[in-house]
Amino acid sequence: MSITLKDVEHVANLARLDLTDAEKAQFTEQLNAILKYAEKLNELDTENVEPTSHVLPITNVMRDDVMKESLPIEKVLLNAPDEEDGQIKVPAVLE
């Protein structure tokens, strides 16, 4: 697979980029070099390699939930910009 000048122009159009002819040629060359380098992976023998989604084995990385005391409402409301009836009052977002 290779990238053509037309492919670069299409992507530039989607990205709303105004590229010069020199830039289009440069990007075509660079993208083809990247693809050629990536094709080297096809030379590797992966027959006995198990597919993975991560490089390292990952088990549950979440900590256990632990119940603990909440802050008293009076202390929480000290940081609130405004308060009404023991609740944080915020500006209305609906008309």
Automatic annotation (TrEMBL):
It holds the Pfam family GatC. One of its GO terms (biological process) is translation. Keywords: ATP-binding, Ligase, Nucleotide-binding, Protein biosynthesis, Transferase. One of its GO terms (molecular function) is asparaginyl-tRNA synthase (glutamine-hydrolyzing) activity. Gene3D superfamilies: Glu-tRNAGln amidotransferase C subunit, N-terminal domain. It catalyses: L-aspartyl-tRNA(Asn) + L-glutamine + ATP + H2O = L-asparaginyl-tRNA(Asn) + L-glutamate + ADP + phosphate + 2 H(+); L-glutamyl-tRNA(Gln) + L-glutamine + ATP + H2O = L-glutaminyl-tRNA(Gln) + L-glutamate + ADP + phosphate + H(+). InterPro entries: Asp/Glu-ADT_sf_sub_c, GatC. Its EC number is 6.3.5.-. The keyword Glycosyltransferase does not apply. Belongs to the GatC family. Heterotrimer of A, B and C subunits. Allows the formation of correctly charged Asn-tRNA(Asn) or Gln-tRNA(Gln) through the transamidation of misacylated Asp-tRNA(Asn) or Glu-tRNA(Gln) in organisms which lack either or both of asparaginyl-tRNA or glutaminyl-tRNA synthetases. The reaction takes place in the presence of glutamine and ATP through an activated phospho-Asp-tRNA(Asn) or phospho-Glu-tRNA(Gln). This is Aspartyl/glutamyl-tRNA(Asn/Gln) amidotransferase subunit C. It comes from Paenibacillus paeoniae. The lineage of its organism: Bacteria, Bacillati, Bacillota, Bacilli, Bacillales. The gene is gatC.
